[in-house]
Amino acid sequence: MSAIQTGTSFHIATTLANMAERAQPHVLGDYAVDGKAMLGVIRIPRERTGGFWERHDGGDEILVLLEGRCTMTLRPSEGPEKSHELGPGDALLIPKGVAHSGKAHTPEVRVLFITPREGNVEWHDDPARNNVTGHP
Fold this sequence. Notes:
This protein has one helix spanning 12-17; strands at 26-32, 36-45, 52-56, 61-67, 70-75, 82-86, 91-94, 99-104, 108-116, 120-124.
């Protein structure tokens, strides 16, 4: 992994275009909040969405949809689920500890993410797929 250093600019579309593998994140760097967090981009094909859940107990997560369309469902420990329809340029702040899942409506979604390095929990509705993540 090569990290972008502070003060260095990068072109997100070029980084995504140069990624050899889909559904594998390319981490762009770290920044400190209450702890370490990852800044990166990921390309996720439609078939890798739906039924995959994650939760970040180490802090909030920020998602910026760069390309594609998806529905993100947030499931807080208290209160009702809430769905967010996202398209290019939409951003979503997911609070610490809130379970969330996405479903792509296009062949692929491309996302800029900022997420905690620690305290991450991932699972799938289908227990047979719980060893396959492909997410940060």
